[in-house]
Give the backbone structure.
Amino acid sequence: MQKLKYDAIVVGSGISGGWAAKELTEKGLNVLVLDRGRPVEHIKDYVTEHSNIYDLELRSYKPRELYDEEYPVQQHNHVFSELTRHFFNNDKQNPYDYNEDNPFYWLRGDVVGGRSLTWGRQAYRFSALDFEANSQDNHGVDWPIRYEDIKDWYSYVERYIGVSGQKENLPQLPDSEFLPPMQLTKVEQVMKERLAQKYTDRLLTIGRCAILTQSHNGRAPCHYCGPCHRGCMTGSYFSSQAVTLPAAIKTGKLTLRAHSVVEKLHYDNATKKVVSVSVIDALTKEKTNYHADLIFLCASTVASTQILLNSVSDEFPNGLANSSGVLGHYLMDHTIGISAMGTIPGFEQSYHFGNRPNGTYIPRFKNLGKQDAPFLRGYGYQGWGFRTDWRSNHENKEGFGKDFKQSLEQPGAWGVGLIGFGECLPRYDNHMTLSKDKVDRFGIPQVVFNFHWSKNELDMRDDMAKEAKEMLEASGAINITTSTHIHPGGGAIHEMGTARMGKDPKTSVLNKYNQAHDVANLFITDGSCMTSASCVNPSLTYMALTARAVDYAVKQLRRGDI
Amino acid sequence: MLRREFLKKAAMLLGGTISASVIAGCMHESIDTPTVFPTKLSSLQKLQLTLLSERIIPRTNTPGAIDAKVPEFIDMLVSKWHTPQERQSFIEGLNDMSTFCDEKFGNSLIDASDAQLDATLSEFESRASSQKNMDNDAIFPMLRELVVVGFFTSKVGVTQSQVQNHMAGQFIGDYPANNVERAFAPFY
């Protein structure tokens, strides 16, 4: 007879869910973690980890018919290939109401561990500036917390997961608890020096990433094979499989249930709490209700909000915990694009050894302290400086034959690039709802998106290209091309908002501890809680907020306040 | 130019944080035109393809296209992976090269000397570059790309024409280029 009652239920096992599972079990709670995807066992299921390109039938070509038919959305994820497809959602099996005229990319995993397996591993703290941004320019509502509230929680998670990087003492990008930084390449070092000569307001540093540069908490350092997104047998980058789920399992208090689609949460008006979670087995379609005192929704921004919108009752006809009416609104993403790239002549005597799964970073330098740009907020750049290889070099070489071949056998010119990451303003109009007529194979209403970039994001995008070009020129680059192309919302895979934190229950879904204003035993700690987006990668903040929320929730529970 | 590799590099750095819409323009549109055109290469065309592939990536002090089974790889792509439109362009392109060689040298491609094969390839390279749009229909860039990709992603290409270093164990940012005879093979 399977157990139906737990102390806590965590929905989702990705970056946030894994952290919730670890923290809750380590505090002694019996925890059920539900994930809609299939199980992925650490090491054993990284079936392509060190596969060679020549082992694939089509090599680097993609099976286009299959992708167009079954993965029309997921193929827009740049790490989606035959080497990673087994980690991703099948769009045909699990569709949403995709609008071709106004597309939004919902890029999602469909495995235990979720997107923690395929994420970009970049790990940056939000700054004091980020938590004050909404109150400064009156977009969105004010965050109910400040940097000081979360600072120690950042340290807590960083010490556990291991974040490599270089201390820079920047107020707009607080330092983490760092493991030693990865090395810059020769040309990245040159760029760093040349930018330092020209600018006083900006610098280039090594990317900060959740990849180990030395042994840490029983995990081995990176072996520099490169494509982390295939899985890592040494557990050297942060994933739920490598880091948080093993910690939760070790307590003996974790029950992990894969293939478990959460249909809705059941609310009891007498106790004003969620009493159970309705789960559909993805394989058998059998429905089961699981009960718990505490619910952590960590299913990802869109999926968590979909569950709430689908959890209607007499008390919450517009979705659970939605007395404010803002659930589903204030959807955000980052604008990401290769702002500029080129080549840097010289330095041909230098090369690089090993595949560094990390780039460089240029922290935000606009609108710091004073409004000095014709748009609000700011952006940062990730970048790289590596020697090119045959993949690009053959296209701009003439001829064929011996000389052609031998030139492709050698390392090419130094290629450099800057990828702008821009902050997106929280706007009511950008939202997700549930379809009134389309359901998925489980009978759950499909998600509908309505998302547009605003003038602020577009203006910022132009500035990113302009500044990137100038910085590449200052670095000695030639053959520079710029781009202001902008992807549909969701394309950065940093979707945030839709169940935002705030001080006022009338204008926000969650309080300062990620607890639903309306429902005391409901916590949401994935990207849906975000009140503003910053311009830095958000995952580290989800981890810190999750650990902080669990600490609060368990104290409240023990005190009898939940 | 550098775009495709840069995007791959970006993908590696960013993991799942960048969408392929950034590569708009690099994507091939599949155009499904009804056709009674052949769905695979004939034996003669396979032989022509073999000879031309080896002229593009010849055996040197490292193996060549034939050693790397590039013609077999391209034959598979043409029959299984190409859209009908791409397949038709490819086969017509091969036929055009064959006709050119016949008319110019009085020799079919399979009887042509190396110099005549090279002259044929050069002719079609200059035809492609003189076209206003370097579109996918031009046989030379289409063929050369298939040969290059087929070769450098083959086991021979990865292990003998490049230096396989997928389990580096460390990252050295400033490594003497002279320490290595050829480029390290990319790991996707």
Q: What stands out?
A: Chain B touches chain A through 78 residues (CB under 8 Å).
